[in-house]
């Protein structure tokens, strides 16, 4: 069996332990390094030039996608993430596989089987792969969210509104709030603009869940949501919403 040198980048300690153990246990893989953030991953991968990289997507300092774009060569990539909305971009960047966390041992073994298959390798140059990734992304239909130890899919049509929280986004849906590790601007770029409207820098609303809109003393709209929340729209957003009215 051909031995592959492997590097992985993962910022969650528990997920790092799981991935490390899985790599050590496979006779066809030899672990040569690991990192807990994007900057460290870029530096180590550039120096070590491993055959295979298991790469988390949402990491401190830079995302896994940004790391891949900065590499001067194209290793075999398996993306590992809790967010399924990146799958299209991952395969446009010629990822060999895409592991959705938490993944099973059987799913990991299937990904490694593809890595060790001689017909699966870095087909194109990095420049060619990245040119494909510049295409407009598909609309996001669902996002995986965490709640009390569970991970489950949430349809974007169920999202009522979102609020920015530093590098995170608070999603309100199903009468609950969920904190996801993705910026509100990144989410907005993948959502249907006919349904979701950015009402100010840190808030995005789904028009399907708006009860009414009323102007305040400065003629800026106050957005009354069905759950009773009231969100203020800035001047630009207020104009856009007024223009949408028939």
What topology does this entry show?
Layout: E1 4-9, H1 13-25, E2 29-35, H2 38-48, E3 52-56, H3 64-70, E4 76-81, H4 87-92, E5 97-100, H5 105-116, H6 126-133, E6 142-147, E7 150-155, E8 159-165, E9 168-173, E10 176-180, H7 184-188, E11 196-200, E12 203-206, E13 210-215, E14 221-225, E15 230-232, H8 235-244
Parallel strand pairs: 1-2, 1-3, 3-4, 4-5
Antiparallel strand pairs: 6-7, 8-9, 8-12, 9-10, 11-12, 13-14, 14-15
The largest sheet, given as strand count, sense and whether it forms a barrel, is: 5 strands, parallel
Helix content: 25-40%
Number of domains: 2
So how many helices? Answer: 8
Main traits of this protein?
OB fold (Dihydrolipoamide Acetyltransferase, E2P); 5-stranded parallel beta sheet; single chain; LytR-like; 29% helix; Rossmann fold; 8 helices; LytTR family DNA-binding domain-containing protein; 246 residues; 5-stranded antiparallel beta sheet; CheY-like_superfamily; alpha/beta
Description:
- The longest helix is centred in the first third of the chain and has 13 residues, at 13-25.
- The protein has two domains: 4-133, Rossmann fold (3-Layer(aba) Sandwich); 142-244, OB fold (Dihydrolipoamide Acetyltransferase, E2P) (Beta Barrel).
- A five-stranded parallel β-sheet has the order 2-1-3-4-5, sandwiched between helices.
- Helices cover 29% and strands 33% of the residues.
- With 246 residues, the chain is of the alpha/beta class.
- Helix 2 packs parallel to helix 3.
- This is LytTR family DNA-binding domain-containing protein.
- Residues 143-246 form the HTH LytTR-type domain.
